Amino acid sequence: MPLQVRRSVSKHVLTIFFFLSCSTYIFADEFIVKLSKNQTFQSSFTALSSNKETKIIDQHELGNLVLIDFIEDGQVSSKKIQALQKSINAEYIVPNIKIHTFNDFPNDPSYEKQWALEKIEAAKAWGIQRGNSAITVAVIDTGIDWEHEDLKQQIWQNPNETPSNGVDDDDNGYVDDIRGWDFFADDSDPMDETSSKNPGHGTHCAGIIGSVGDNGIGVSGIAQNVTLMPIRFLGADGSGDLMGATKSVDYAVDNGADIISASWGAAVGKQQMQPVLDAIQ
Asked: Over the stretch 24-81, which tens digit does the pLDDT of each residue have?
């Protein structure tokens, strides 16, 4: 479903599956706290830091979010969550749920015959337009093999960052993010890490979107001239968490992506995905 989004991005397409659930106790190790917009991030952060029942694990100032853990082990009561939310005047607190790829691609080599391109009559579209490098698609996933022979010339390059100088040249909070960011490993190399559980999900998605066409190599993407922004928050087993997903969406938006590919989700209520929904507003 196309969504109108903030700042420099015109549209995002985000696929998430939801079902509603409720419980008196919440079984989670970590929680995301959305701090109040009516107070400065630092003042709210300080108030949360002084809470003796929780410890801070991570923060994301752009999204006004703090990742916390309750010091006491075991299940956390809804009343305790509500009490904390009230004490620091937070907008909401949600579990830092686990998110997984929609890994439904077959391993059958014949899949590479790409019958889908004929099905959607891609050739007719290519007669009009083969994509435009001015359009950037952020692939938020397990990363992209940015050295792949059919993808390397499509990879986004941060025009405001100097490679390997150890400096955040564009002051966006990420050092040497030349070709995107890895929120799973927290570094500047969003390379797709494959395993038996991840045969290259992010690279596969990137290839479907924008592999170079008419070059006699591999496959052809639907938009053959598009620019691909690699953003990784899912590990080699195809899983990540809500905080990483939210940071990834914010990064894509802040760095000029026009479209987001998000082939992942979680079977949770819509309210529990609120940080991601906030990021695409």
From this structure: 445 577 999 999 988 899 999 999 999 999 999 999 999 999 999 998 767 788 888 9
Nearest to 88 by CA among 64, 105, 107, 110: 64
Can you give the three-state secondary structure of 159-206, one letter per residue? CCCCCCCCCCCCCCCCCCCCCCEECCCCECCCCCCCCCCCCCHHHHHH
Location of structure tokens 């299940």 = 75
DSSP 95: E
- Cα 88 to its chain centre, rounded Å, is 28
The per-residue b/e assignment along 26-64, b for 16 or more CB within 10 angstroms, e otherwise, is bebebbbbbbbeeeebeebbebbeeeeebeeeebbebbb
Pairing of strands 76-77, 31-34: unpaired
Per residue in 134-167, pLDDT (tens digit) is 999 999 999 999 999 999 999 999 999 999 999 9
In angstroms, the CA 159 to CA 180 distance is 11
Instruction: Provide the phi-psi class of 164: left if phi over 0, else alpha when psi is between -120 and 50, else beta.
Output: left
Distances (CA, A) of 180 to 3, 51, 105, 146: 23, 35, 25, 10
pLDDT reported for residue 12:
41
The pLDDT score that the predictor gives to residue 200 is 95
First to last CA, the chain: 13
By CB neighbour count within 10 A (0-12 exposed, 13-18 middle, 19+ buried), where does 279 fall? buried
**Domains in the chain, please, with CATH?**
29-96 (3.30.70), 100-279 (3.40.50.200)
Nearest partner of 96 among 256, 268, 238, judged by Cα? 268
Place of tokens 């990879």: 155
